[in-house]
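subagent[fold] <- orchestrator: predict structure for attached chain, return tokens only, no commentary.
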Amino acid sequence: MRKINHFGVPTTTTQAGESYAEDLKVWLTDYSQSPNRIEYLRFEEGSCMPELIQKVAHIAYEVESLEEALAGAKILVQPMALSDELTIAFIEEEGIPIEIMCYTKK
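subagent[fold] -> orchestrator:
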């Protein structure tokens, strides 16, 4: 079962408190600091992220099994570990990007 975690909104405007993810060439805000759990993403030229993610807002869901969530899905970004506790991937559903987030249970 999916649980909504945050909404990601591409922007071209610098946002307060954004941090830079050098590997992805994107500036991000911390959605946990937003009362509406919004993450702003400001991509730089040459980002490896697909155009759909760079141009269209996404919904991020937490799932218990990344493998199950990706089975049969149209994958935009293969799974990537952001930390020891979190792995994400992006898929496309209904014409928009969907971020799939899987936290390691301890």
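orchestrator: received. Logging for downstream: The domain at 3-103 is CATH 3.10.180.10 (2,3-Dihydroxybiphenyl 1,2-Dioxygenase; domain 1). Residues 56 and 75 are 16 Å apart (CA to CA).
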